Amino acid sequence: MRVAVFSTKPYDRRSLDAAAEGTGHQFHYFEARLTRDTAGLARGFPGVCIFVNDEADAATLRTLKDGGTGLLACRCAGVNQVDLHAARELGVAVARVPAYSPHAVAEYAVGLILALNRNIHRAYNRVREGNFSLDGLMGFDLFGKTVGVVGTGKIGSLTAGILRGFGCEILAHDAYVNPACTAIGARYVGLDELLAASDVVSLHCPLTPQTHRLINAETLARMKPGAMLINTSRGGVIDTGAVVDALKSGRIGSLGLDVYEEEEDYFFEDFSSRVIEDDVLARLLTFPNVLITGHQAFFTREAIGNIAQTVVESFTHLEQGRPLSNLAEAPPMSA
Ligand code: NAD
Fold first, then answer.
1. Own/partner pairs, 282-289, CB within 8 angstroms, 24+ separation
2. Cα of 67 to ligand 1 centre, how many Å?
3. Which of 17, 25, 101, 270 is the most buried (most CB within 10 A)?
4. How far is the CA of 138 from the centre of ligand 1 (A)?
5. Model confidence at 329, in pLDDT bands (50, 70, 90)?
6. What is d(CA 193, CA 21) in angstroms, rounded to the nearest whole number?
7. Domain 102-292 is of which CATH architecture?
8. At what angle do helices 120-128 and 102-118 cross, to 10 degrees?
């Protein structure tokens, strides 16, 4: 099958080409993001493959459909970048990669907690400049602290398990109780109780209309003063402006982000010789108690390999008329 791949990086090309070997699929790689303006590039491609910051809104999907696309395969787990209702109406199937390595993201979330708490990122810079002073680097023992995990699916439950190994108490919040979490002694509570009692809050829910800006001025005010906030889920789960205010007032003690609300303008690109025009992002980068990375929690050899494998399988199954097991379904309209 001919497949147009958007937002391509060299590692995508390598992993997809390796996974597609012998299948007969022809991948055509575009560096551009998929947007309304670039959707025309996919004309004549029955398959399209996108990543987290592409924009498959209704207009884009219509262009894809008119151009002959039948399957849009996302090389990620979250599909908030796709208008699933429009896709269903247009008859464009949307596939995702439900679990490529939840370990990669869970381990990374814990990595952010450890680095931020013990100021490892700052110590690294200091020592390289010959500054061995410890002033300002003091952290806290994770042992015995309470960690609130919001969203206890595949990634959240693994994060809870790792932190339990550090001797943390785990509070969990989700509409569904995950037995893997209760088995390690996590206690399910309402969001307010979780926020009020947690020394660290780690977000692992998908971005949906219900979770959009779940962390906002109101919910931040309910957090334990000085708590650490970690987001490896999607940027839109946090109202970033409100978080900046909470950092300035000291309401939250530190912030670790692998995702950012407006990340599509910056993440995955090199801006080191350019001016960052996004004042919120620029402000965030000035705080000593903020650690930001550019959406790399998924980025392990295992995850990249599994993503490519699943994406290639989706196109193969479609071509062979077999049912796709990893279709992303549109939620009910009322939800
Ligand atoms: P999952 O579907 O296994 O788990 C998500 C959980 O969130 C579910 O249990 C769901 O019930 C819960 N949830 C939904 N709405 C909620 C709400 N309002 N409050 C609390 N919980 C809620 O998904 P997963 O594989 O664990 O991934 C979680 C998210 O992590 C993905 O949706 C994606 O956005 C993000 N992610 C980020 C990266 C990265 O590189 N930073 C990589 C993979 C996934």
1. 283/244, 284/240, 284/244, 284/255, 284/257, 284/260, 287/247, 287/255, 288/122, 288/136, 289/116, 289/247, 289/253, 289/254, 289/255
2. 32
3. 101
4. 32
5. confident
6. 51
7. 3-Layer(aba) Sandwich (3.40)
8. 60
Q: What is the pLDDT of residues 90-149, one digit of tens each?
A: 999 999 998 889 999 999 999 999 999 999 999 999 999 999 999 999 999 999 999 999
Residue 295 annotated in active site: yes
Is the CB–ligand 1 distance for residue 219 below 6 Å? no
Q: Under 8 Å CB-to-CB from 145, ≥6 apart: which residues?
A: 168, 169, 199, 200
Q: Which residue in 75, 173, 204, 234 is the catalytic one?
A: 234
Query: Are the folds of 2-100+301-320 and 102-292 the same?
Result: yes
Report pTM: 0.92
Cα(330) to centroid(ligand 1), Å: 16
- Distance between CA atoms of residues 56 and 35, nearest Å: 7
Domain covering 2-100+301-320 assigned CATH 3.40.50.720 in the classification: yes
Q: Is 176 in the pocket of ligand 1 (CB under 6 A)?
A: yes
- Which residue out of 75, 261, 295, 313 is catalytically annotated? 295
Q: For position 78, what pLDDT does the model report?
A: 86
Nearby residues of 224 by Cβ (< 8 Å), 6 or more positions away: 195, 196, 197, 198, 199
* Cα Rg of the chain, angstroms: 21
92 contacts 71 by C-beta, under 8 angstroms: yes
Give residue-wise pLDDT tens across range 62-82.
999 999 999 999 999 889 999
Active-site annotation holds for 234 = yes
Ligand 1 proximity of 96 Cβ (cutoff 6 Å): no
CA distance 50 to 44: 16
97 CA to centre of ligand 1 in angstroms? 13
The verdict on the CB of residue 205 being under 6 Å from ligand 1 is yes
